[in-house]
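Input chain follows. Return structure tokens only.
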Amino acid sequence: MPTDLDQAKYVSFTTFKKDGTPKPVPVWIVPFDGRYAFTTEAESWKVKRLRNNPAITVEACDVRGRVKPGTTVHHGTADTLDETSAARVSAAVKKKYGIVWYIVIGPAELWRKVRGTSTIPGAVAFDVVD
């Protein structure tokens, strides 16, 4: 597993539209079963794009998704995880990001509980090949 991704607080996770247009988005990642993973809404656009094309690129970035010149671009494939694995990823993200999780994700989790919808987010896992 690449050291730069292991040390990154955020990575720019890029999926591709049907016409090949890249769609990067910054995400928090955690190591997960020999791969990397992150939480997301189960019906997010990145998940929908992954169903059509599992190819991805990732590179370390800042909170706004800005990538420094010369940052290594890693290519790989991604897939969605089942609900049990998504819960494990969610717990790992909560542990890694601590208080920031409570500020950013916590309110959305609370809102899901109030609405009576699932409190388990979707999750994506990915491998890098270079």
